[in-house]
Design brief:
84% helix, mainly alpha, 0% strand
Length: 226
Amino acid sequence: MDAGNIGFTHFIAQSDLLSKSLLAILVLMSLISWSIIVIKFFEGMMRRQKVARFFKAFRQAKTVQEVSEVADRISGVDYSVLTRKGVDAIHFYKESGDIPLLESTSFTDFLTVTLRTALDEIQMTKENGLSVLATIAATAPFVGLFGTVWGIYHALITISATGAGTIDKVAGPVGEALIMTGIGLAVAIPAVMAYNWLTRRNRVALGRLDTFAFELITVLGGTQKR
């Protein structure tokens, strides 16, 4: 086989519809994976700047009204969402004097439940995209491997039909088919690394939010008494 006719381009040119479809799937997986990675990266950068601004203003607030204004002014971060939920809980509790279920519930307990629910909602939001990355990381190598097996099968069929069974005739088509496995790994590895990075980042962020929720309970818990 001429060396000029060996390579990925030649493999794609002589491959069938299934091989091209598998390659297209891998390319789509890679685009989705990198889109999630880039979006999450820039979201994290912008969130860090807003969090710094939020805490600077939050530490200076002296009343519930000022805390509420901070949450409204610096929106788009989880700390603001949590603060907004806490302030809304105060207003709801004040206006719920005729609700029997709350008559025997202290405000601190009610605030704790409210913030815990908000934390669960934030956690679900943070996990957006992680299942996609996990799916890509788990399936991309097998998609590539299937493409390799299919490519080798067709290469051997072609070699058998032509009767050219020497090593120089077999190595080219088989080597070309193995490229699909390499592509599958190239798609999966960034997805695995991004999944682990985002999982750890979310775990750290949720731990800090949990600590902040206790601080909110302390700050807001004494503002309302039955």
